[in-house]
Amino acid sequence: MALIAIALDDEEATTVKSKRRFSVHPTWQKREQEGKYHTLYKELLDDETQFYMYFRMTKECFALLENKPSPHLHKKDTFMKRAITPRERLAVCLRFLATGDSHMTISFSYRLGHSTVNKIVKETCKIIVDQLMSEVLPEMTTEMWKAVAEDFWLLWNFPNCLGALDGKHVVIEAPPKSGSLFFNYKSTFSIVLLALVDAKCNFIYINVGAQGKNHDAGIFMTSSLRQRLENGTLNIPQNRALPGTNIVAPYVIIGDSAFPLKIYLLRPYPYNSGNREFEVFNYRLGLARRCVENAFGILTQKFRIYQGRIKMNPASVDNKILTTCVLHNFIRKNSENEVNSFNLESLEDSSLNN
């Protein structure tokens, strides 16, 4: 029996051939002939509307963005193949963020390997954050804070306001062996984005990475924003009289009832109190606080990655959230159409998680 088994093994070894392997799969070798970048991109350049729908930004903004991280995205050609250009790398990354499609879908569309797409998205996001963070989310000076407060008074009719604060749950796939760490009150798994937003829906401060089980107030109390507000190291202007009065009041940030009441943080009075003055204050505060809800709405509509469950490990999700926030500010800063076309009524009914 043993001799028969050995003979059969020898026969099988001689008849079964090993699978053929490729250094580059034939499908990916057609990248320059059939890949979306080499076929569709040239057509999109002739139509501004279609370009905007595909990349979620104008051609001018795309070109400006390309010039910023381009030197860091450049790779050298090899004897075997030509390197993927910085523009194509940026296109792959933006398309992933704009649609939320899987890496596999992007892989087949652009005729790139699955692992290649994964690496391109990861590297490009990191480079965008490293190169643009200091430009679009700078350290605030006293004059910059005063300009923000002036905008809140002119646009939202709320004086001495430095920003609106709120949190957003970004739904993710449950990380392995995480238990209930990322499980939130909405019965989903999430990572929390805590943001301070100015009167024009630009991010001033962002805190990314808190687990979904945490409350907004708890995240704020452990954040660097709260520590610097307590320590007085944020270059906050001196107290100023409220418009039309002699009442001197401090500059504050505003939040909903989830946040604690502080000298530097205002929250609404209890609702249904029957006090007319309380109701007027709550109305004015709620109106000014809408800009943070609107900012989350714009972010979600522009980058559709937020409209599904992100299937990545938490560290990668943090990187993608940070990148979209940086791009949000970059696009609004460098595209006048983004600001002018902003319509409050269109976002009034947007469904957002607190």
TrEMBL record:
The cofactors it requires, by name, are: a divalent metal cation
Reading the lineage from the top rank, the first entry is Eukaryota
The question of whether Nuclease is a record keyword is answered with yes
Q: Which UniProt keywords apply?
A: Hydrolase, Metal-binding, Nuclease, Nucleus
Protein name per the record: DDE Tnp4 domain-containing protein
Please give the Gene Ontology molecular function terms for this protein: hydrolase activity; metal ion binding; nuclease activity
Any one annotated GO CC term: nucleus
Nuclease listed as a keyword: yes
Q: What is the lineage of its organism?
A: Eukaryota, Metazoa, Ecdysozoa, Arthropoda, Hexapoda
Chief place of localization: nucleus
Please list the residue ranges annotated as the DDE Tnp4 domain: 165-329
Record organism: Parnassius mnemosyne
Please give the Pfam families that the UniProt record associates with this protein: DDE_Tnp_4 (PF13359)
What's this protein's family per the entry? Answer: Belongs to the HARBI1 family.
Question: Where does it localize?
Answer: Nucleus
